[in-house]
Amino acid sequence: MADFKELLTVLERGIPSRPVLFEFYLNERLYRRACGNRYDISEPYAAMRTMVRSFEYYGYDYATVRGSEYWFETGEVQDKATISLNAGHCITDRESFDEYAWMDPARCDYSALDRIRDDLPQGMKTIVMGPGGVLENCIGLVGFDNLCMMLYDDRELVGDIFDKIGSGLVEYYRRSAAYESVGALISNDDWGFNSQTMISPDDLRKFVFPWHKRIVETIHAAGKPAILHSCGNYSMILEDLLSLGYDARHSYEDKIIPVEEAYEQLCGKMAVLGGIDVNFLIQSSEEKITQRCQKILDQTAQRGGYALGSGNSIPAYVPDEKYFAMLRAVGKGKW
After folding, report:
1. Domains of the chain by start residue, with CATH
2. How much is the pLDDT for 231?
3. How far is CA 142 from CA 23, 136, 247, in A?
4. Is the pTM of this model over 0.85?
5. Cβ(299)–Cβ(272) below 8 Å
């Protein structure tokens, strides 16, 4: 039975009464397996019900959902397994910045968050994710190479772009956090590659982190926990990360830092969510997956602040049986 209080205990760095699962998102195949003929993503409320049914089916205490249709529209991007960080850019200078059709988060429809309240299983809450993050959306609008050049050529314009994105996200989270159905909120923003940050730590501190601090303050003002989902190497910005006020961090890769080590590094400072490397899930046997999951549950059992899950998400190229091997570690016997 779902019980968001168990996840809340983890987010508060406490010891839950049972192992807790956490996942950013799954994939369509798993959603369809959970929902059968009730699978429906035709409109926001239907999609939200599909997420609730799916996450409940696999044993989660929450479901990740979008708060509204708020988005940062970019140019055309080809639908491929991987895409360039330069694809789809549409802001190249002051003129294109001024002409860009910025969506107003205050005019978006958040009503599905109210409607879903009566559809939530007892004890369950939603967790609202963002429409991308502060840096992610800037890269999407400007292009990575262009952003690197713009940081050198026109820092005033860079600041204006980040301010427009950041202020919009703050309002999106402010409105989303107000709903009773929402138990926590995720700020999803990738900051790094495997070996370093995407832009310099100093530029992150100037343009990106101040907006993350405001996002956290906005979420906390509503009495809700703030979760950071961020991929990449954070060793150069660890103290900055801890200073932002996030209650938990998600997204870990073995080739950056295994989650077992990350837990020792972050325990008592912020909760650690997930961390079973996606590549490990794909390449390892089911037995090895379950064993590793059981070991980290043992490692964290007496200190708390940990929920089991993948290092990032469960994309379609992760075999279902490998995902189920992870679930078995928390006693999900039907898998």
Report:
1. 4-71+103-132+166-328 (3.20.20.210)
2. 97
3. 30, 10, 30
4. yes
5. no
